[in-house]
Amino acid sequence: MAKNTTVKYKSKLRKSSPRKKWVPKYEVKRDNVDELIAVRDAYYEAIGFEFDSKRRTEKDVIFRVAYAEAMSKYFKITAIAKALEKDHTSIVHYMKQCLLYEGYYDFYKALRETATCIYHLEVGKTSLGMQLKKNIKQYVEALEA
Asked: Alpha helix (H) ranges present in the chain?
């Protein structure tokens, strides 16, 4: 007798075609540490803070967690760890603490969005990055006028 093979979690699955079964979603994540370091440097310049992987003050940790969470959508955890000069287990711990920081600190979402925008401007050749560049150019032109 054949077992009923139903999938419980369809949100983590995609349908490959109308006639085929549900298959897992695969997110292609990059492993380029040089791109991450460029984004990291621009991120820390934007927030007006100096990057130091050895400091363990509260602000330093919050900045690293926000950056790691923003980049986790696009890059592998091991690449993020190399860019932040940490072990990959630290990044896994950061991912577990994201909701705590988001609920406790008002400025955490702004930090995460800043890192995401800088990624799209610096590295991501996406339509969002092009739109951001266009908006910034229009903003600067309006300020100069």
From this structure: 33-47, 58-71, 77-83, 88-104, 108-122, 127-144
